[in-house]
Amino acid sequence: MRALGNILWHIPFLGFLNALFTYVLGLLLTVTVVAAPIGLGLMQLGKFFLAPFGHEMIASSEAMPNKETNPAWKTYSTVIMILWLPLGLLLAVATIIQVVLLFLTIIGIPVAAVLAKTVGTMFNPVGKVCVSVDVATEIRRQAAQAQLASR
């Protein structure tokens, strides 16, 4: 079913163009060095757009909870995210409008579901990672077990 969804995403709806545009934008922002945190997140979103059925975007802190991050990088990412806020808001609103329009068609409903999953990442791409659905499910299961053990 995932393969059929990915084929539907790419063939009539040209999802590969969306993936290419997002990845190249992320690459350009990463090359500028100033917007590297946003660029890295958009590159992960472009990776997600290559095979959206069967993948999820999650926070990298969820994916790698034991990984130490540099406090300076974390602070810098927060500042860059504040600067990204107006453009991210515009992208999120445009995506929501596109989702609503796709939901009006029968064949566009699966594609609308994919785009609806990306609204949060478009608004805040900093620190997001593309993982398979199975990995995301396992991460959530382990987090739930850890939360239960702490009680």
Q: How would you summarize what this structure contains?
A:
By secondary structure, the chain is mainly alpha-helical.
What does this structure look like?
With about 150 residues, the chain is mostly helical. It has one domain. About 75% of the residues lie in helices and about 5% in strands. The protein is built from eight helices and two strands, in the order αααβααααβα. It has a two-stranded antiparallel sheet with strand order 1-2.
What are the key terms here?
single chain; 151 residues; 8 helices; two-stranded antiparallel sheet; mainly alpha
Mean pLDDT: 88
Question: Which strands sit side by side, in order, in the main sheet?
Answer: 1-2
Q: Could you list the spans in which at least 5 consecutive residues all have pLDDT below 50?
A: none
- Helix/strand order, N-terminal first: HHHEHHHHEH
Rounded to the nearest angstrom, the radius of gyration is 16 Å
Largest sheet: 2 strands, antiparallel
Distance between the termini: 39 Å
**Strand portion:** 5-15%
